## 1
Amino acid sequence: MILRLILGDQLNETHSWFGKSEDDVLYLMMEIIPEATYVRHHVQKLAGFFLAMRSFARTIESKGHHLFYIRLDDPENRQSFESNIKRVMTKFDITKIEYILPDEYRVDRLLADLSDRIDLPCSSVDSEHFLTRREDLGDFFASKKRMLMESFYRHLRKRDNILMDRQSPVGGQWNFDKSNRQTYDASIPIPPALEFDHTATEIIDMCRKMNINSFGYIEKDRFIWPIDRKQSLALLDYFLENGLPYFGSFQDAMSSESWSMFHSRLSFSLNTKMIHPGEVIQRTIDYVESSRKDIQMNQLEGFIRQILGWREYMRGIYWNLMPGFNDMNYFEHDRDLPKFYWDGQTKMNCMKQAICQSLYFAYAHHIQRLMITGNFALLAGVHPDQVDYWYLGIYIDAIEWVEKPNTRGMSQFADGGIIATKPYVSSANYIRKMSDYCAHCHYDHSKRAGERSCPFNSLYWHFYHRNRGKLEGNPRITMMYRVWDNMAEEDKRDIVQQAERYLMDLDAL
Ligand code: FAD
Ligand code: DLZ
Ligand code: SF4
């Protein structure tokens, strides 16, 4: 009998493994303590993975497949992939092991030499999920100086003939980013987030019984994210109807009125592989073509770029940089992550909003992750290990292959500029322009130093000042140093002193 392992982020019903049921195949899924504790997960992330895994198990069993499912609190659970495989091997006449290539380096290494330890042939198959192979990005950039997302994205547009008019991009432009930085226009109603209605009580009780340490909230144990393919497709359809018409325009906008704005919230469904990026792209294009709404190109292209461009690019970067990626710390940052990241208790309203909604929904949209919480961690000089740890735990969609390039690379510039051409930092100016947060803040967005001066302002200049040696040569930053150099000496001194006072006690901010 062949034993086939399915990991918790491999819930892909459309995988060719499940084409027809075979009597000589036994599928194996397991809930294990190391996966629930390799980082402190948000309670909704634990609930989401276990609920979706169990739902997937029911689906494939209903299609006639044989499955052995090990629950976290099963007294016979040996709590590791390898030990549980060995246990199943003693129960059934297993002659071969097959697994789907994992997306995480850690699990990939664990399974790569499994056959040496269990004395049975082991082989892997593709996940059939991504639009590129692990090594495609490295091959594509082999002879190029920079590994820019935009080049890879254009290559994939051409390769797959997506939004193309022969060799030219539809709409005459590859990228409509400039039209995608609008501030939120309050006359356009934000669609309420589509919520599903699952109860997570059993999972939460089980995690408690098994001493799994989690954080974050889940109101009345009600889990609102999709847990199967059908619900994931319903979420996609809801987004196309309600979010897509304004997606591009307000992609970077933030408002305390909504925790998900016009975003799709599809990342959990995609990262667990309940839906396929190719079908998301195709359905989106079909929707725009058949819709009577006049959906502009900047909305459509903006969304396609996230899935076809950023998502595939980040995965390629991950496989290109691992395992060395883990140790990158370009600025040699070493401060601790402030305590308020774990409870949202800070006087900085932008941080409070972004962190509290993450604690309540296990979600923040991209610009909150990048330009609020990520921006602050970078300005404050927090060690990237601690920043990674937080992002990997708090978000429902956080799987290392996508979390790490976004956090350590894009947001913390710990790779020294492989992903981003300059650090994503900003002062209050940007936050004020893109959100309504500053209007209700204890701090004054217009002050760079002195009482109640916004910490983002002094820390911003301090960041450039202290990292001059590493950044001055970057042509995209020259201008900032010119502004700094032209400031009055007294102002510069006040700003640096203010930043140093704030840095001495970040927890008090
Ligand atoms: P939408 O805005 O609706 O975008 C649609 C889809 O595009 C997303 O579902 C996602 O699959 C893809 N996408 C968009 N941006 C990116 C990106 N930068 N990288 C990869 N895919 C992207 N995304 C994760 O899936 N998991 C993570 O752990 C994660 N950690 C992040 C950490 C930081 C510091 C930052 C700055 C970004 C991170 N992202 C991560 C990327 C992005 O923020 C999320 O994919 C997005 O917010 C998910 O919400 P959504 O589904 O509503 O996205
Ligand atoms: C996130 C997660 C959690 C919390 N628990 C499990 C689990 O018990 N079993 C499992 O197979 N997968 C789990 N996952 C998803 C894993 O992090 C992911 O499947 C692997 O690390 C491979 O990327
Ligand atoms: Fe954030 Fe500063 Fe604005 Fe307050 S004033 S919301 S801390 S940017």
## 2
Amino acid sequence: MASSAPRVPHHVAIVMDGNGRWATRRFLPRIAGHKQGVESLRRCVKACAERGVGVLTVFAFSSENWNRPVEEVSGLMELMVGALAREVPKLSSDGVRLHFVGERAGLSPKMVKGLLDAEAATAHNTRLVLNVCFNYGGRWDIAQAAARLAAQGEAITELSLDRAMALAHVPDPDLFIRTGGEQRLSNFLLWQSAYAELFFSDKLWPEFDEAALDEAIAAFQGRERRFGQTSAQISSTAAA
Ligand code: IPE
Ligand code: IPE
Ligand code: MG
């Protein structure tokens, strides 16, 4: 017989895209879409925890998003500071451990304090690790890891780079979801997604609900992960 119960992905990564279009379709300002995006994230965190996902990594603000209009950038920064103040106690009581991943330079001191406080306040939690990638880019991550190793005089190998990367505290993502209909990575987790299963949803992020998450997980469960091996090798290991 093949493998037993279909496994839930241990680590799910999500490019939460489509907030702006969600708002524009409703004749609302784009920031209203980002606010709705926070609601959607709250729902998704709960749903992931209930399904036994161990790690959820979300893309909240990319290195490239600084190129947006200043009002949108400042709106996103305010939203983040507000969300930290509001959401952390509940996340913590739900057993969520927060990590903020990305470049701290360029963020306001108030924001950095908020991120550090949220990490400290949730450090003891074990139910779900939530990595929020903020001012993050996959190329930044690879470059900062290499620069750190070089500064320490360490050899650059796959293993040493992996350990210097911003997500070294968790295993690589199993399932990479992008909402909003675009089929690109947009500089998210370039190194870590080498063997992630990709799932593209046409749903805009504010509409991404439990059923949409279940659809992505079901698609994942239907994939055969071969990691370079043949299908025959995989089925003989599963049968053993
Ligand atoms: C993703 O939604 C959120 C961020 C990039 C902060 P967008 O704002 O990119 O939404 P669309 O793609 O314009 O609809
Ligand atoms: C990726 O979405 C970044 C986040 C979701 C935070 P973008 O909307 O910025 O990506 P592009 O510009 O369409 O590639
Ligand atoms: Mg977008």
